[in-house]
Design goal:
Chain lengths: 162, 228
């Protein structure tokens, strides 16, 4: 089972990295969260039934771990955004337009709550409302409501930037 | 910038991030070997240790009541008869409260898993934390009940022994005097209980208050979905 688990996690590790980058702003926190998600996935892997897609289940475990993650110091998961260190690296590599967009994205993410972060992440990953609802366990209607609120937040942010 | 641009920015950023942090099978295997303990895991372990310590303490209290005190206290000093019902009541209360606590804990544990729906998961963590807090309260209650019983019996026996030695056993303690003894005992013990509860509550809130608050905020946010 371990071999099979390692194989499937190695193939789908992008999901964990993406969750970590939206919930953590520091490299150290990111590593801790990655390890915690990995441990939780391994622990609950025996209970995974193929009723849903593996990636759906993986997103759920990863997001649940990130949302309920406890930090002893001043930062709570809700108040963190995309890594500033990583953003600077990205800035060196892409043109200014993308730079601006990533900055905007980072600023938007910081304003979001834990649940909103999970919804925007899944939206950015091109998941349909139905799948977002399945992963987060909230109704499709509420996902729509939340998405509208997130859009409003983003618009406000963009206006204030301009 | 609209959401389409945001998506393309995210794609660029996230694919770069994934490539940068990508791990091999061996690295993932290595990471799995390093055991991590989340807050809930740590609390869970502490509850189990606490339950073990409480069980030992209860066993000691019962052993002391039923066997040890009879063995150590000389026959000339008799345990006051009027305290026996109180003693039986306190022991029954301690054992039943402990069993109730254990059953509640097992019930929470049985339904707890990280791949639950978020709402159930948050509720499960909240309940685990509350159970942890209840365990401390239970420990205080058990300790205090034990102190009250021993203290009252001790004060009563001390006074009775003094009265016997002064008046060669002619003067007996009246009900009024017994009530004063119990009253004084309660006056000392009750503030101790109240202070202990406040200290525990303060300490617990300092450690986990903010986390409990964020859990309850997230739950509230999810509850909006019922009305949406």
């Amino acid at each position: 089972m371990e071999k099979e688990f390692l194989q499937i996690i190695t193939e789908n590790q992008g999901i964990i990295h993406k969750v970590c980058s939206i919930y953590c702003d520091l490299e150290e926190d990111r590593r801790d969260l990655f390890q915690e998600i990995l441990a939780q996935l391994w622990r609950s892997y025996p209970s995974f039934r193929s009723e849903s897609k593996f990636t759906t289940w993986m997103y759920r475990v990863a997001l649940n771990t990130a949302i309920t993650n406890f930090k002893k110091d001043k930062r709570q998961p809700d108040k963190t955004g995309i890594s500033y260190e990583n953003m600077q690296l990205v800035e060196e590599m892409y043109d200014t337009r993308i730079e601006e967009q990533i900055k905007m994205l980072n600023m938007a993410v910081v304003q979001l709550t834990g649940i909103e972060k999970s919804i925007i992440l899944l939206f950015l990953e091109d998941k349909k409302y139905e799948e977002i609802a399945e992963i987060t366990g909230i109704t499709q209607n509420y996902v729509r409501v939340k998405m509208n609120r997130i859009k409003k937040k983003l618009k406000l942010l963009m206006n204030s930037e301009e | 910038m609209d959401l389409k641009d945001l998506k393309s920015a995210w794609n660029t950023y996230s694919s770069q991030e994934v490539d940068k942090h990508r791990l091999g099978k061996e690295n993932i295997h290595e990471m799995l070997k390093n055991k991590t303990k989340s807050l809930v895991d740590r609390i869970d372990r502490n509850i189990r240790i606490g339950m073990g310590v409480l069980l030992l303490f209860i066993a000691y209290v019962l052993f002391d009541d039923l066997y040890l005190s009879k063995l150590l206290i000389p026959d000339s000093i008799k345990y006051p008869g009027w305290m026996i019902p109180f003693d039986v009541f306190s022991n029954t209360l301690i054992v039943t409260t402990y069993l109730f606590f254990v059953i509640q804990y097992l019930k929470i544990k049985r339904s707890f898993s990280i791949d639950l729906q978020l709402k159930d998961l948050l509720f499960g963590i909240q309940e685990t934390l509350k159970t942890y807090r209840r365990m401390f309260y239970l420990a205080v209650v058990i300790l205090m009940i034990n102190i009250i019983v021993s203290f009252t019996a001790g004060v009563y026996q001390g006074l009775k022994f003094k009265a016997n030695s002064v008046s060669s056993g002619i003067i007996n303690l009246t009900t009024h005097q017994i009530l004063i003894i119990v009253g004084i005992s309660l006056l000392i013990i009750i503030p101790m209980i109240v202070i202990s509860f406040f200290i525990l509550r303060w300490g617990f809130n300092k450690l986990y208050g903010r986390y409990l608050q964020s859990l309850s905020d997230t739950l509230k946010e999810l509850d909006e979905s019922q009305t949406a």
